[in-house]
Specification:
The protein has 393 residues and is α/β, with parallel strands linked by helices. Helices cover 39% and strands 19% of the residues. The strands form four sheets. A six-stranded mixed sheet has the order 2-1-3-10-4-13, sandwiched between helices. The protein has a five-stranded mixed sheet with strand order 7-6-8-5-9, sandwiched between helices. A two-stranded antiparallel sheet has the order 11-12. Helix 5 packs across helix 6 and helix 12 crosses helix 13. It is globular.
């Protein structure tokens, strides 16, 4: 079979697994594609590689295509999010010194309660909290600002926010450059392994169904390559479904551990995939089910309401017009292309392309083609909801 070569970029993170598995297990080849995977050193580099046409597709922070559509970040090339690659998968990590002060204040590091964790953190911090995020337009930043803002901490203006590439987070906290960080796995667990940090919270404790990474391409490429776009969406959907099966977890960890991908032991990578974490250098352990999702509950469906939640957060922080930002974001998550691509597989998809974000406390069956689709809880920790129809009244 003649395969069509596609160049695809990624950052070494557990949630790059769909692209890597698509290449290694053969899902790309099933669709007639050969993925040439390129590892990038930072999110800005990866974004620019897509924008400049050096690669066709990328594992991308979900807020980046939205920020680009809003004219933020200095990149004018319009990007489309063809699908969500992963839901959740981040951790908040604090330095050993800060963890010791939090414990002295009575905090038990339960790895589950954002309110108690945030109050203990702000009580223990000495001066302005220096906190690392991988990129200014990232779900890491949005979760941190949402979390601390809901606790009454002016964010980000009262924080010293520093941009650090994910693989360098442990080094930054070891060097005393930051007091804490939010990052995708395995880089929080690496800080624990190196004895320089302790895990405070999973990102899913703040928003239980946050769209973390998307499959991003240039808007003009998606427009001129509809056949390849469909093949790419179907390839990544199959990879996500494979990753969702517990029997494949050990194989996935072994694949990701290879030096040209993440270069981290399979045992550490399995922590994110299993949700079984070692949170401190003393060996304290915690379980977080559904820490990262690649398929369940329509995880890869690019809900337009998710893009608009990101847009309203960015608009509020940067002074952009809210209604214009919501309208721009509506075009970024390509629900239309996703539906077209998966129609050939008869995948049960949501009947709607928008929903009230944060409304589900429990799994819920929704309207879909076959009536068998169940969404997972998507609650924000403070009980707030994002209802676009209410904003437009």
């Amino acid at each position: 079979m003649n395969l069509h070569l596609l160049r695809a970029g990624f950052i070494p993170l557990v949630d790059a697994a769909p692209l890597i598995v698509a290449h290694e297990i053969g899902f790309a080849e099933e669709e007639g594609l050969a993925l040439d995977l390129r590892k990038a050193p930072s999110w800005s580099t990866l974004r620019d590689m897509v924008a400049l046409g050096q690669i066709e597709a990328a594992h991308m922070l979900s807020p980046v295509p939205v920020a680009t559509a809003l004219g933020l970040g200095g990149n004018a090339t319009r990007l489309d999010a063809l699908s969500v690659l992963s839901v959740n998968g981040n951790v908040v990590c604090v330095s050993r010194a800060l963890a010791d002060r939090m414990r002295a204040g009575g905090y038990a590091f339960d790895f589950s309660d954002p309110r108690a964790a945030g109050e203990a953190l702000m009580k223990a911090v000495d001066g302005q909290l220096r906190i690392g995020v991988p990129f200014p337009f990232s779900m890491h930043a949005e979760l941190l600002y949402y979390w601390l803002g809901a606790l009454g901490v002016p964010a980000p203006q009262s924080l010293d926010v520093r941009t650090v590439p994910p693989p360098l987070m442990a080094d930054a906290i070891a060097a005393g450059e930051v007091d804490a960080f939010c990052v995708g796995e395995p880089w929080g667990s690496i800080a624990v392994e190196n004895g320089v940090g302790e895990l405070l919270l999973p990102g899913s404790a703040i928003w239980s169904f946050a769209p973390e990474k998307v499959l991003a391409v240039r808007h003009d490429w998606a427009g001129t390559q509809p056949v390849l776009t469909g093949k790419l969406i179907r390839t990544l959907w199959r990879a996500g479904r494979w990753l969702s099966q517990p029997a494949n977890r050990a194989t996935a960890s072994e694949i990701l551990s290879q030096p040209h991908y993440l270069g981290v032991t399979a045992e550490i990578l399995d922590r994110a995939l299993s949700g079984h974490f070692v949170i401190s250098p003393r060996g304290d352990q915690r379980q977080r089910d559904s820490f990262v999702a690649f398929h369940e509950g329509a995880a890869t469906f690019p809900w337009r309401s998710q893009a608009q939640w990101i847009a309203q957060r960015l608009a509020a922080r940067t002074g952009l017009d809210r209604d214009m930002s919501l309208a721009a974001a509506h075009q970024v998550f390509r629900t239309d292309l996703y539906r077209n691509a998966l129609s050939a597989l008869h995948v049960d998809l949501p009947g709607a392309s928008e929903k009230v974000e944060g409304a589900l406390d429990t799994p819920r069956e929704i309207a879909s083609a076959s009536g068998t689709l169940i969404l997972r809880p998507d609650r924000f920790f403070d009980g707030a909801v994002f209802d676009l129809s209410a904003l437009q009244r």
